[in-house]
Amino acid sequence: MKLSDFYYDLPEELIAQTPIEKRDESRLLVLDKDSGEITHKVFKNIIEYITPNDCLVLNETKVIPARIYGHREEKEEQIELLLLKDFGNNEWEVLVKPGKKCKIGTEVLFDANGKQVLKATVIDIFEDGNRKVKLEYTGILNEILDEIGAMPLPPYIHEKLQDKDRYQTVYAKYDGSAAAPTAGLHFTKELLADIEARGIKIAKVMLHVGLGTFRPVKEEVIENHKMHSEYYEISQEACDIINETKARGGRVFCVGTTSCRTVESAADENGHLEPKKDNTEIFIYPGYKFKVLDCLITNFHLPESTLVMLVSALATREHIMKAYEEAVKERYRFFSFGDAMLIKFDK
Fold first, then answer.
1. How far apart are CA 236 and CA 240, in angstroms?
2. N or C: which end of the chain has fewer CB within 10 A?
3. Where are the domains of the chain?
4. CATH number, domain 67-148
5. pLDDT per residue over 184-237, tens digit each?
6. Closest to 324 (Cα-Cα) out of 1, 23, 7, 43
7. Which CATH homologous superfamily contains domain 3-63+163-344?
């Protein structure tokens, strides 16, 4: 398939710059994946589409304030690091600006209140230009990042985020993501409590979102694109909930493409899940046969992105492009802080 098959025209003013006041009052476009029928709702209406026979899958990853600004010793110019992936032993993959200033051996210093609190030494350079750095600090890294770091908002968001928690799901638990699993931003604690009160089981998984998911596809033949690796975990409890749902003929609703990629990566050929901790480079595009996921709650994604390809694998490219055209016409808000879409079918 060609990259241009997944292009759509989006007016810039429809890119949401700020979250709306109440998370669950975003708009919701409901797409029937078989018929292509479209219905317009409000996000809190999502509860009307999930039954006690189904289950909901959430990604409990937590975004860290991963964008940090430092300087080389005795140099005034600012150097920006974006922490992407924790290799353990205080070694991280990072995106560096400007990269030409950071050769192997370069030390970048980070200060708070006039005192150095963190040092990053470049120890390797990857093929794509990203660096591996060794961090040195005293204390707890997450506390240091809370003090000196900023939330790594996507480049299409130009407004300053007033409340860090709005780029975090209400159920975020495990630090490690460089970007939010944005479909989950629409849920409130009250809405989740209502879902559980109806007897709907919630399976909790974890995939740390890297920037690889959002990087532009540069291959005109999409099958040639290579995904970046992301770390995920799925517990015995989550496996049991999902396996039992499938066994009784219920539907698995994944909240976001990250939850989808987690369960599809962890499943065997028969769709059965066992507990797992692993890295995934799964690339889902039209022709892919889903083993676990039935319905998907997601946001509206960038043209020609791997995420548009993923949703097109579920509902066909034709239905997705028609739905996106409808969303533009109806002035939906797009991308991370935008409105939501439910891709579903009825059993």
1. 6
2. C
3. 3-63+163-344, 67-148
4. 2.40.10.240
5. 999 999 999 999 999 999 999 999 998 776 678 999 999 999 998 899 999 999
6. 7
7. QueA-like (3.40.1780.10)
